[in-house]
Specification:
Elements (H helix, E strand, L loop, with lengths): L9 H8 L4 E5 L5 E2 L14 E5 L3 E10 L11 E8 L4 E7 L9 E8 L5 E7 L2
Parallel strand pairs: 6-8
Antiparallel strand pairs: 1-2, 1-3, 4-5, 4-7, 5-6, 7-8
Length: 126
C-alpha cells in the first residue's frame, strides 16, 4: 500500500512507526481533529500539534465492501467511521467482519506497511 506523505502528514505518519495513534490539537482553542490539516477546523488557527490518544472508541457507522478496486485489499472488508473516546472520528477498517455493529467498542490495532510505517485499523473489543 502506497500512502503519500506531505508536510502536513509527515509527523503523523512518523508516529505510526512506533504504533502511536495521535490527533491534532489546536493551541488556540484546544479543538482535537483528525486527519492532519494545516489549520484548525474550529477556529482557523495554525498552531497545531500532535497529541497521543488512547486508541479506543466506538463504531459510529460502517459498510461492507464486497468488490474491491485494490489488489492488496481483498474483499470483503469493513470500512467504518470510528468515534475515538477523545472525540475525533477516523475512517478506518474494523474486524472481525461478521461481528461489526454500530455502537460496538473498538481498540486500535496496526497493519504494517512496506516502508516501516503502520496503518491504524480497529478490532472489536470483547
Amino acid at each position: 500500500m502506497n500512502v503519500p506523505l506531505d508536510e502536513t502528514t509527515q509527523q503523523w505518519w512518523d508516529e505510526t512507526r512506533a504504533r502511536r495513534l495521535t490527533v491534532q490539537r489546536c493551541g488556540a482553542c484546544g479543538h482535537l481533529q483528525h486527519y492532519p490539516r494545516p489549520v484548525c477546523l474550529s477556529c482557523g488557527g495554525a498552531a497545531l500539534s500532535l497529541v497521543p490518544v488512547a486508541g479506543t472508541g466506538v463504531v459510529e457507522t460502517f459498510t461492507v465492501v464486497r468488490r474491491t478496486a485494490y489488489a492488496d485489499l481483498p474483499a470483503p472488508y469493513v470500512v467504518a467511521v470510528v468515534a475515538l473516546t477523545e472525540g475525533p472520528r477516523l475512517l478506518t477498517n474494523v474486524t472481525p467482519l461478521d461481528a461489526v455493529a454500530i455502537g460496538r467498542p473498538v481498540r486500535v490495532d496496526w497493519r504494517p506497511l512496506d516502508d516501516g510505517r503502520n496503518l491504524p485499523v480497529f478490532v472489536l473489543e470483547g
